[in-house]
Design goal:
Elements: E1 3-7, E2 10-15, E3 21-23, E4 32-34, E5 41-44, E6 54-58, E7 65-70, E8 84-87, E9 92-94, E10 103-105, E11 132-139, E12 142-151, E13 163-171, E14 175-182, E15 188-190, E16 194-197
Parallel strand pairs: 3-4, 9-10
Antiparallel strand pairs: 1-2, 2-3, 5-6, 6-7, 7-8, 8-9, 11-12, 12-13, 13-14, 14-15, 15-16
Length: 203
């Protein structure tokens, strides 16, 4: 037998004989199924009027999407602007409700910078200069190119916070290898450490 919870002559929640719980549905297909049509959210609150509450929402602001939305004011229960949108297509939006690619980051930064940070959080240690960050392009599981930021100094003091930017590509015979590097002095090296530009800007 099912267990029903009824208010105002309407079933609000049902626990089926199979152990599934339904809120807004009499036929829950999973351990917890929630249905409510438009504007249905799960609100998560801290209990303090000094911080924002959060909503987990499906089909709330964007069709065919799951969204994470902060309250418009601290301690509030109105949710209008998602910080993250997950579309049924697999596209993810941060700062946008209509992501156009697998990852779409949007920030309105008039006169400022829309920035993405990729950080190697290793604790800087004296003489340790082999830490890097890397963005990789792949094709069918095979690496195709790297954009690498690496250390020239160990970053333990201001004088040793120096870095380079390098670009690697793949050849059919030798695989991945670095093809170009810009060092902390602005020198550009291509191939086997051949410096092709060592001047300043406008030189």
């Amino acid at each position: 037998e099912d267990l029903e919870f009824i208010t105002n002559n309407s079933t609000r929640m049902r626990i089926t004989s199979a152990g599934n719980v339904g809120i807004g549905t009499s036929t829950p297909a999973h351990k917890l199924s929630i249905e409510g049509g438009a504007n249905t959210v799960i609100q998560m609150s801290h209990g303090s009027a000094a911080v924002h509450n959060w909503a987990l929402a499906a089909q709330y602001i964007t069709t065919n999407a799951f969204q994470i939305v902060p309250s418009t004011v601290v301690g509030g229960s109105v949710f209008t602007t998602p910080v993250a949108t997950f579309k049924s297509t697999g596209n993810v939006g941060i700062g946008t409700v209509s992501p156009q690619s697998p990852l779409h980051v949007d920030k309105d930064a008039n006169g400022g910078v829309a920035e993405i940070i990729l950080e190697n959080s290793f604790t800087n240690t004296a003489s340790s200069t082999d830490e890097r960050t890397q963005i990789q392009g792949r094709f069918g599981g095979w690496d195709g190119s790297y954009i690498i930021t690496g250390k020239e100094g160990d970053y333990t003091t201001a004088a040793l916070r120096k870095s380079y930017l390098a670009f690697s590509t793949r050849t059919a015979t030798t695989g991945m290898s670095e093809k170009m590097r810009i060092d902390s002095d602005g020198k550009i090296q291509v191939g086997s450490d051949k410096v092709i530009w060592a001047g300043g800007y406008g030189g």
